[in-house]
Amino acid sequence: MQRLVFLLSLALLLAPAAHAGTGFREITLADKNSDSPVHVSIWYPTASDAAPVLLGETPAFIGQPVIRDAAPMTGPHPLVVLSHGYGGSWRNLAWLAADLVDAGYVVAAPDHPGTTTFDMRKPDAVELWKRPGNLSRVIDALLGNPDLTGGVASGRIAAIGHSLGGWTVVELAGGRFDAARVTRNCAAEFSPIYCKIFEALGVGRDAASSAALAADLSDTRIRAVVALDLGPGRGLTPESLAAIHIPVMVLGAQADVDAETATKADIAATNKDSGYIARYLPPATTTYSLIPGSLHFSFMQTCKPGAAELIEKEAPGESIVCRDGVGADRAAIHRQVSGMVTDFLGTALADQ
């Protein structure tokens, strides 16, 4: 009996600390080299038993329970940086952040200046080439201040992005964008809505911005990336995609957004972009799937019942963000995506 008690006590001592919840805090990265301040949301494992609050809860969208400014569990933890789509924010992938924290990750999501809900700029002022750098700045900040997260593992860093965020993380992996090609042949190679998207993003507006987009924007600290129905993927050069040597997971929406509703969206990537980059990425390190029942915005947060009608009343045409495939359930789509992503990252970062 004494031996049994001893073994049970030893097991409790050796067991990892209980993960009671998801900690959350927000920081602002100050100006650096004349860049704009960047607002960053951070999720991390915590053993705090304080009462959680609902994060990102709105009349239209379901929030996530978090414990604000809780003490983080001691790391080092693997790190995932998230990149939102055009006109989006850190809230869009909060559901995935929560699941990743449950799996032991620290997650950080910046609001990209110029292309976020809270800072939308005119096409001649959009600086897309700074998006990958925003994520690199977040990595710098978290590596330099372990008190924020309990510490992150410098060799286990991944990046995940949706829509324009997917383009952003592929750039971090080494993708290079040819603005001149997509604008020169836009009408012939793409659709009218795609040409409007390029115009809204300021793609090809002048030689200087085209050169900035064509530059090497990669960050060698990124060891794996996940692109969720990315766009504009077809502007990435085949040569640069073929040269990416880290694991890449490409998840696309099974169904394209139809022409009628696509004209209402600021940016509605299609599975053509996901298929395009998957075709040129190295097969040995690439995972490619179309998610059944998903449309482009299925990768965003879950809408409440009646949310589409509410959004349509306030912003006609924008209720598209609550649309999924016929008969599909967004929560089920999220569970599938979350499982695929955590399995992929678990393998991709295991030996780092």
Using the CA coordinates, give the radius of gyration: 20 Å
Biggest sheet features: 10 strands, mixed
The quaternary organization reads as single chain
Number of strands: 12
Overview of this protein structure:
- This protein is an alpha/beta fold.
- It contains 13 helices and 12 strands.
A few lines on this structure:
The chain has 352 residues and is α/β, with parallel strands linked by helices.
Write the layout of secondary structure elements.
Elements: H1 2-14, E1 21-29, E2 38-46, E3 53-55, E4 64-68, E5 77-83, H2 94-102, E6 106-110, E7 115-116, E8 119-120, H3 131-144, E9 152-162, H4 164-173, H5 179-184, H6 186-189, H7 192-200, H8 207-214, E10 224-228, H9 238-242, E11 248-253, H10 259-262, H11 271-280, E12 286-291, H12 307-314, H13 330-348
Parallel strand pairs: 1-4, 5-6, 5-9, 9-10, 10-11, 11-12
Antiparallel strand pairs: 1-2, 2-6, 3-4, 7-8
